[in-house]
Amino acid sequence: MTAMGVIEGVKRTLYQDEISNEHVYPLDEKINLQIIGGNRSRYTHVFSHNAAQLYAKLTEEDSVKTLEQLLGIKIEKASLATVAQAVAEEYISKSTKQETVETPSLTEQETIITTVETVEAPSLTEQGTIITFEGNQRCENGGESVSMSQRLQELDASSEQETVEAPSLTEQGTITTFVDNMRCENGGETVSLAQRLQELDERSDRDKVIRDALDGKLEGVECGEASKIALYGLLDGTGIPGLKKELSANGKNGGGAKTFEAKIGSVFRQGFSEGCIPLLNGGEIYRQPYSTKYIGTVGKIDQFTQQFTEFAIKHGIYRYTDVVFIGDGAHWIWNLLKKLYPNAICIIDFFHAAENLNKIVDALRLSAKKREKIREECHHLLELGEIGKLELLIKSKSNSSNAESIDKGLAYFTDNADKMRYGLFRAAGLFIGSGVIEAACKTIVGKRMKNAGMHWSKKNAEGVIALRCAIYSDEFDLFDSNPIAA
């Protein structure tokens, strides 16, 4: 038996339990053998989780070589994959299990007493008084818990309503908030990000504040202590080379598809001081350490919607009053996010917007010199978030021969103008790029699953994604060696 936990040459003694009249191996419980396919395997949890980590980080061939070189353990690639997939099932089940959440109403309420750390999700039932305390999760109003399936049904129902809004400061009788033990009536000293954006937009020196932010002179608190938190949610998709028998016969460019899609989600936190002023490190905004978490699946949108909803709840989306979503223009992304948190601040990833802008500028019938001059002016307007002026400038340079295609390209900007207030977003100290999720697609999926010659089954891809999300979220369990199994 090795220190990693593979049982070599151990004689297992079978006993008969006289009470249950079952035959058992008592030592198995002490050794803590990994369950594979519903049965106890010959591998301990210690070995299985370390082997799974290798499998998630390296190719099968390199993982097998590493185990043999470091530990003298010979294991077939197929056996290693089976062990790793069994461990992955633990993380897949963790991401999909039902959780109970308590959800306040979107309708008018007389009194809400909560903490900033426990602002719960809006539901669609009327309640007179809601009291939520972190820890014991006490809820007055019948105290009924809401299951995840019920929550998803409510989210679907809410998407069909034209106006579903969270309780505002003016619609409530009293909103009492506690921020670091400071009591604030009807907002008091706490300012939401939406209020902060409105305040910046109404300032007489608005344009100067925005220019200063673009020049790196952001108003913020250096190395301060966070008195409020904003939670960010990001989504994206990326292709994985698949087995031909599992791929669609209808590819994007005709013929059969070569990949299937993996959907990746992420959350992270950003800290703000009183007045919703961003915390800075060296003059730059930053993500709170260890707050970035990931989830992914190769399943369909409905499956990912449920997974990401539960994932976001687990990481506190309804405990924070300020939620920010960043994504590209994909409709499935915004449909999912708006159902999850209708009043979130939504931002189109700046770099996706810039790419789309370049395509429009390239379509203008101008000389190369004039086109680059217009491109520079357009990008400046985009940075400021002046979408109306951007539209007028581009239309003034189009003609009848390309007006239709230009208008179609501009619709991306006019339809998403509220998500492209980049000047105000920058002045408020918000992130405007989806670099975190773009990097996740490359790191979690691409680095391991897009190497030359690789073709994945959906089942194996699902397992690897689950393992790598856990590893890069710092949530992968590595068990201490059991003295009995060492």
Low-confidence stretches: 1-5, 12-16, 98-145, 158-188, 481-486
The fraction of residues assigned to DSSP E strands is 15-25%
DSSP strand count: 15
The portion of residues assigned to helices is 40-55%
Structural class: alpha/beta
Q: Helical stretch count?
A: 16
Give the mean pLDDT. 79
Main sheet makeup? 7 strands, mixed
| Cα gyration radius (Å) | 27 Å
Q: How far from one another are the termini?
A: 7 Å
Query: How many structural domains in the coordinates?
Result: 3
Oligomer: single chain
- Give the overall shape: globular
Describe this structure as you would to a colleague.
The chain is of the alpha/beta class and 486 residues long. The chain has 3 domains: 15-97, no CATH class; 100-190, no CATH class; 191-455, no CATH class. Helices cover 41% and strands 17% of the residues. The protein is built from 16 helices and 15 strands. It has helices at residues 26-31, 45-57, 60-71, 77-96, 148-159, 193-202, 206-214, 301-314, 331-340, 350-363, 368-384, 387-397, 403-415, 422-427, 435-449, 458-472; strands at 15-17, 22-24, 33-36, 39-44, 111-115, 129-131, 174-179, 182-185, 221-222, 228-241, 259-273, 277-280, 293-297, 322-327, 345-348. The strands form 4 sheets. Strands 9, 10, 11, 12, 13, 14 and 15 form a 7-stranded mixed β-sheet that branches. Strands 6-5-7-8 form a 4-stranded mixed β-sheet, with no helix packed on it. Strands 1-2 form a two-stranded antiparallel sheet. Helix 2 (45-57) packs across helix 3 (60-71). The longest helix is centred in the N-terminal third of the chain and has 20 residues, at 77-96. It is globular and about 80 Å long. The termini are close together.
